[in-house]
Design goal:
Layout: E1 2-4, H1 9-19, E2 22-24, E3 36-38, H2 40-59, E4 64-66, E5 72-73, H3 75-81, H4 83-86, E6 88-93, E7 100-102, E8 125-128, E9 131-134, E10 144-147, H5 152-156, H6 159-166, E11 172-181, E12 196-206, H7 211-228, E13 236-240, E14 252-260, E15 263-274, H8 276-285, E16 291-292, E17 298-299, E18 302-309, H9 310-321, E19 322-326, E20 332-336, E21 347-351, H10 358-369, E22 375-377, H11 383-392, E23 397-401, H12 403-408, E24 410-415, E25 421-425, H13 429-438
Parallel strand pairs: 4-11, 21-22, 21-23
Antiparallel strand pairs: 1-19, 2-3, 5-10, 6-7, 6-8, 9-10, 11-12, 12-18, 13-14, 14-15, 15-18, 16-17, 19-20, 23-24, 24-25
Helix pairs in contact: 2-9, 3-8
């Protein structure tokens, strides 16, 4: 068997549309740039990635709690955080063709990359990336609020509430998954960069002086997480921010980058934020955000941040899972090698024929499996074509019910990655699939 792991963005976009993972938003009206809708399989995949992260960050740690803060917050929040003054991109326009570019991503001394004319760029000007809206019946300066451009600030402004109500002690973390909005000038590469997206963030509060230790701890924890997801190690790397790349709040920062079809791009950031955020919110709100430690010392905690994009993680999982295999005879099998915990469909139940009571047995097997797994039942078409359909959407296990099932109460269990098939007693099927998921390693 020859293998071809090449994947292009065009192939991914085509598969996602064809199989119901991702659709263009408002497609029947011509679509909306920078916005995407997740179809029946896409929403299942996205929810599983989110749930896996949530379990990893909260359930498996006894010192991390969760939060779900509001999307709209008091406008002073964004003044304190620095977003009003600093959250902008430098833009230039071509006066000839009216194309718009980020000034830091093109050579201003070169010709326009669209029309080819030289000397036609305007002077760079700042463009704030926050979406503004109004709250209340009257639109004036006093009614302006922003759609949050990140989820972190909702955690910081709730620091005191969490400490008072959850009995947490430093070091501890607050995790959150939620929508964020950025008025991106250039949205591109499918769901990688969009105006509306979801973040998976955890802010870990530590004692000043212990931040370097915890920074290294969370770097190791977060890169190990992707190994648990079955992501190929050679596709991941760290990128450390240089002095010119550091955000205004950061003492140190690393990105975890993944080699997407369009090249190496940021997947997740690990940032040492010092006490910048809590100090600023204490200043702007006038509230005491210090922490009283067990030794009676009082201080403003330092923060280690882990921040991953949920939609980027979905694109990473799709990119890493996609494979085209050339089988004997030249047939091409398109397969998504999802970790079974992430696959939108865990088990497909496939009766060999619809007659002679086979379908009724299969429906009973599907009903039993649904108690624990995401099950898809399919009784239409040749069994080989049904296997291929399941491979293309990443279903790790197929269960086939045939005439032997009526005689010996066994079924055929097929494995997506190897295409191996084994006979398993019906009453052992759930435990066998459970064990396969627990011990899964991608080869």
């Amino acid at each position: 068997m020859a293998e071809n792991r090449e994947v292009s963005m065009e192939k991914l976009v085509s598969l996602c549309k064809r199989r119901g993972f991702v659709y263009q938003s408002s497609e029947i009206y011509g679509g909306l740039s920078g916005a995407w809708d997740y179809g029946p399989l896409g929403v299942e995949l996205k929810n599983r990635v989110k749930d896996y992260w949530w379990r990893e960050m909260t359930q498996l740690h006894d010192n991390i709690v969760g939060l779900d803060a509001a999307i709209m917050m008091h406008p002073r929040v964004w003044e304190a955080s620095g977003h009003v003054d600093n959250f902008s991109d430098p833009l230039v326009d071509c006066k000839q063709c009216k194309s718009r570019f980020r000034a830091d991503q093109i050579d201003l001394e070169a010709p326009c990359p669209v029309c080819g004319n030289s000397g036609t760029f305007t002077e760079p000007r700042d463009f704030n990336l926050m979406f503004a809206t109004h709250i209340g019946p009257v639109k004036d300066d006093g009614s302006i609020v922003y759609l949050r451009p990140e989820t972190a600030q909702g955690i910081f402004v709730n620091f005191r509430n969490v400490v008072q109500t959850s009995r947490v002690k430093i070091p501890f973390g607050i995790a959150q998954v939620g929508k964020a909005f950025r008025n991106e000038v250039t949205t591109k590469n499918f769901i990688f960069r969009t105006c509306e997206f979801e973040q998976m963030e955890m802010q870990f509060f530590v004692k000043p002086g212990e931040d370097d230790k915890w920074f290294e701890f969370w770097k190791n924890e977060r890169i190990s997480y992707y190994d648990k997801l079955g992501i190929r190690k050679e596709k991941l790397r760290f990128h450390r921010h240089g002095e010119n790349e550091l955000a205004h709040y950061a003492k140190d920062a690393f990105d975890i980058e993944y080699e997407f079809p369009m090249g190496w791009q940021e997947l997740e950031g690990i940032h040492s934020r010092t006490d910048f955020d809590l100090s600023r919110h204490a200043e702007y709100s006038g509230k005491d955000l210090t922490y009283l430690d067990d030794d009676k010392s009082r201080y403003i905690p330092y923060v280690i941040e882990t921040s991953a994009g949920l939609t980027r993680s979905v694109l990473m999982v799709l990119s890493d899972a996609y494979e085209e295999e050339e089988l004997e005879g030249g047939d091409i099998r398109t397969v998504l090698h999802f970790h079974p915990s992430l696959a939108p469909v865990t088990v497909a139940v496939l009766p060999l024929v619809k007659k002679d009571g086979i379908a009724e047995i299969a429906q009973g097997v599907a009903s039993d499996l649904r108690e624990e797994f995401a099950v898809f039942y399919d009784q239409s078409g040749a069994i080989g074509r049904r296997y291929r359909r399941m491979d293309e959407i990443g279903t790790p296990f197929c269960v086939t019910i045939d005439y032997d099932t009526k005689e010996d109460k066994t079924v055929t269990l097929r494995f997506r990655d190897s295409m191996e098939q084994v006979r398993v007693p019906i009453d052992e099927l759930t435990s066998r699939i459970r064990a396969e998921i627990k011990n899964y390693r991608r080869v």
